[in-house]
């Protein structure tokens, strides 16, 4: 492979949870949610599926996922086989989901909207949620403005389409039609999970360069780029 996208990089280094706060934050988010066994939950841009697997195990509910990266899909399917659980893994885009209107009780979206056309993805989430269904976003957020160089490096490295403050995320939710928008968490750090990889002699040096740049950006932008958790209702 000549060049790796950020998501290719995540696959190559074998990261599990790739969202702010990791799986601990996901557990915290769902602590107070009353997810019943008969409910349908959708994890959009599920990555390797750690959140989806946690939800299935914790609530025994029906869990669907949608993901557009084939390596991520292979990983979640492998994990499901290993633990003997059933999760419906759908290949597709969060910007145009192959699901019927009013299907889900909950949608969880962790570190996905910044990479896509967020307005379109939110419209899709709204469409496939049941009336009074809940959408939870766990996303990066801009805490302080970045200078041009920082913004270019940040958006360039992660291939971001969106770089929003908490208020801008809230406005997008409001514009889509969501109500009861609550801020569950607002952190001035991204709280990325530490990446540990074994330095195999065969590892592509490009991946090591990417790892360096990822760690530099996390350090340099700490306090300027943070993360938010927003909960809202259709
Ligand atoms: C930073 S990772 C987060 C993965 C996962 N949500 C997690 O928290 O570990 C972003 C994920 O969004 C997926 N993604 C990006 N654009 C997408 C799209 N248009 N439709 C579906 N998934 C998408 C990527 O393939 C990747 O798995």
TrEMBL record:
Name of the featured protein: Methyltransferase domain-containing protein
Gene Ontology molecular function terms on file: methyltransferase activity
CDD domains (alphabetical): AdoMet_MTases (cd02440)
Lineage of the organism: Bacteria, Bacillati, Bacillota, Bacilli, Bacillales
Keyword Methyltransferase: yes
Domain of life according to the entry: Bacteria
Residues in Methyltransferase domain copies: 41-133
Organism: Halalkalibacter alkaliphilus
Alphabetically ordered keywords of this record: Methyltransferase, Transferase
GO biological process, one term: methylation
